[in-house]
Each structure stands twice: as structure tokens, then as C-alpha cells.
Amino acid sequence: MKKLLVMIFAAILVVFPLVNPALAAKVDMGKLTCAQFIELDVEETAYVYFWLDGYFSAKSGDLVLDTTTAGDDIDEIIKRCEANKGTTVLKILGQ
């Protein structure tokens, strides 16, 4: 269900970009733990996912955004995070 909601939100962001003042706080992505990631709401999960996609795209040089895989990617991050709640998200993704 969360996967579907994230995909819907991602589509909305493409059509109607928005900035939520509640999400305007600075987040140190290097310190974001898996436990914190799992607790994010759908909107926050989408923001973090797209930040991660941009981060890894910049490192790899792959500049293609494939929104058809976003839900599966998020599910994989959540699966890894559930097994490593005290670890940072970047660390479970190999950084």
C-alpha cells in the first residue's frame, strides 16, 4: 500500500511541484537511520527516495529517472532497513 501511495505522490510531484513547510527542515542524510526512514510518512518517504536517487545518479553518472521502479526500490530499502534499524540508510545502500 505504501508503495502505491508513494507512486501516486511521485506522479503528483511531477505535475504539481510543491514545497511543504513542515518538510523544510534540514535533514542530515548521512545520519538518517533506518529506524527513522521506516517511520516517515508517504510524502517524506518520496522526498527521501528522490534525494537518494539523485545522490546515486550523481555518483554513477546514470541520469535516467525510472519512476516505474521507485516502488520496488522503496520496498527494498524498507526491507533492508527493517533488518538494520540502527544503521544509516546510506550505509545499508553501500555508502
Topology, element by element:
Layout (H helix, E strand, L loop, with lengths): L1 H14 L18 H6 L2 H19 L9 H14 L5 H4 L3
Helix pairs in contact: 1-3, 1-4
Count all strands and give the number: 0
Strand content: under 5%
- Average pLDDT number: 83
Q: What characteristic shape results from the CA principal axes? A: globular
Structural domain count:
1
Radius of gyration: 13 Å
Q: Main sheet, how many strands, which sense, barrel?
A: none
Query: Percent range for helical residues?
Result: 55-70%
SSE string, helices as H and strands as E: HHHHH
Distance separating the two termini: 28 Å
Alpha plus pi helix count: 5
Q: Low-confidence runs (pLDDT<50, min 5 residues)?
A: none
Structural class by secondary-structure content: mainly alpha
List keywords for this structure.
0% strand; single chain; mainly alpha; 95 residues
